[in-house]
Specification:
The complex is a heterodimer of chains A (210) and B (121). With 210 residues, chain A is an alpha+beta fold. Chain A is built from 4 helices and 11 strands; from the N terminus they run βββαβββαββαβββα. In chain B, the strands form 2 sheets. In chain B, strands 3-4-5-6 form a 4-stranded antiparallel β-sheet, with no helix packed on it. In chain B, strands 1-2 form a two-stranded antiparallel ribbon. Classes of the chains: A alpha+beta (210), B mainly beta (121).
């Protein structure tokens, strides 16, 4: 029997850190990601019973913690984030809990990957790539937003607050075909603080800094 | 550069949104009873006014939901944003001057050539 191997979209990349801990980026491989479509009023109790995390009550927010969380994506659309290899059990629990309700659970774990961007300069790195307002007054811990980062659509989630030691931590969920592009652009955005530049697999050339 | 207020997500940059054509185009209840002309009218023909216009937009990069917008196509002023299925709110806007005040073709900025309502603003 052949060995089963799986590779993340960024398996060739090693975590990067700017000197002095100004910013760091790392891929979070194989996080479980499920799309949950359900009417939040009808399904909130069942979802909380199945996952242990309540549905977000407010738009553009997340509930739960860094391991298991539910992200608000649309008025009837949520992402359930689980630890590595936790998505199958979570999907089964959701299917069981929501039986009889109009709903959909889809596994998108291998379609998106998560890049963690952390450090005191993480916010400024993101500001270089997006028109989304990621100033600390507008975007704080527990907030989620879909937007365009450079040329790629992605969902941004701030996991920990700015008061944490080591600065805030963000997770950027990006499609796997855009993951390498996004990785290299994030490294380029951190170049100002000494993050090493990365060479894109696709051969693109760009310079955010002159 | 415009800011558009999504009724679900709040105010975001225009680049996150896509236009989806005229709003409130109702599908005929009995398409089989229509003549070819009437069907072509429903499928292809859309209003393209200079002035107040109800359009559909979709928040492509965010929540991916359609919503409706009342926009002045002459000035690009966004007058109202409302969810699909809601009644459009009553708004008033400066109507473009036509035809005598029409900007000549190729003159550039049409936005300055609008008539202000009597006694308003």
């Amino acid at each position: 029997m052949s060995e089963i191997r799986r590779r993340t979209p960024l398996h060739t990349r090693k975590p990067l850190e700017a000197p002095g801990g100004a910013a760091r980026i790392a891929e979070l491989p194989f996080l479980g990601k499920l799309v949950l479509r359900v009417d939040p009023q009808a399904g909130s109790k069942a979802v909380e019973a199945a996952t242990g995390v309540p549905l977000p009550a407010e738009a553009c927010t997340a509930t739960g913690d860094a391991d298991t969380a539910i992200l608000w994506i649309g008025p009837d659309e949520f992402w359930v984030i689980t630890p590595r290899d936790g998505e199958t059990a979570a999907a089964a629990a959701l299917e069981q809990g929501l039986a009889g309700l109009h709903h959909q659970v889809a596994d998108i774990g291998s379609y998106y990957t998560a890049i963690e961007i952390a450090g005191p300069r993480a916010r400024e790195m993101l500001m270089k790539l997006t028109m989304l307002d990621v100033d600390a007054r507008a975007f704080s811990a527990g907030q989620v937003a879909g937007s365009i980062f450079a040329a790629a659509q992605a969902y941004l989630w701030q996991v920990t607050g700015d008061d944490q030691p080591g600065g805030p931590a963000f997770r950027l969920f990006v499609r796997r075909s855009m993951a390498d592009y996004m990785w290299c652009l994030l490294a380029e955005a951190g170049f100002e603080w000494g993050m090493p530049r990365q060479t894109p697999v696709g051969g693109e050339t760009w310079r955010l800094e002159r | 550069m415009f800011l558009i207020t999504c009724p679900y997500c709040g105010t975001r940059d225009q680049s996150e949104f896509s236009n989806a054509g005229e709003a409130h185009v109702a599908r005929p209840e009995k398409p089989e009873d229509l003549s070819d002309e009437e069907w072509a009218d429903f499928v292809f023909l859309r209003n393209n006014p200079k002035g107040l216009f109800a359009e559909r937009w979709i928040h492509t990069a965010g929540c991916r939901r359609f919503f409706n917008m009342l926009r002045n196509t002459a000035t690009d002023e966004i007058l109202a944003v409302y969810k699909v299925g809601e009644t459009p709110p009553r708004v008033s806007t400066a109507e473009p001057a036509t035809p005598s005040g029409e900007a000549p073709i190729g003159s550039g900025n049409d936005a300055v050539k609008v008539e202000r309502p009597e006694g308003g603003e």
